[in-house]
Amino acid sequence: MRYDRCVTRTNTSRRRILIVDDDLGIIEVLKDHLEVLYDAAVDGRDALGRVRQTAPDLIVLDMHLAGLTGLEVLTQVHDVNPKIPVVSMCGNEDGEATAAAMAHGAFAYVSKPFDLDYLDDVVARALAS
């Protein structure tokens, strides 16, 4: 399922997604696959600044970042705007990171490498929530 079809199905205009990952390759894959208006940040401080400036509709957040961790970013994002859904992602099967992200209000948790069809579904559900 492509993201543009998800948008049509939910009768919404194109949404802005903030992609936060220290791997520029992941950012490129996500922006190309999701075909969305996007903003990107490679660290937690930059991500928080962008949240304050642009108020994205969704954040896709790597949990392992330099400086502020993804968990710290998630917590602070919800302090700024608790209505922004956050999809957290991590490159390993870390049960503690998954539990912590969900306990701190993540909409969903996606493991890397991620299945793009599954990610499409999670993004569509998060934007429709």
Show the helix and strand layout:
Blueprint: H1 3-9, E1 16-20, H2 24-34, E2 37-41, H3 44-54, E3 58-62, H4 70-80, E4 86-90, H5 95-103, E5 108-111, H6 116-128
Parallel strand pairs: 1-2, 1-3, 3-4, 4-5
Helix pairs in contact: 3-4
How does this structure look, described?
It is a single chain. 48% of the residues lie in helices and 19% in strands. It is α/β, with parallel strands linked by helices and 129 residues long. The protein has one domain: Rossmann fold. It has a five-stranded parallel sheet, with helices on both faces. Helix 3 (44-54) packs parallel to helix 4 (70-80). The chain is globular, with a radius of gyration of 13 Å. The model is unreliable at 1-13 (pLDDT under 50).
Task: Summarize, please.
This protein is α/β, with parallel strands linked by helices and 129 residues long. The protein contains 6 helices and 5 strands, in the order αβαβαβαβαβα.
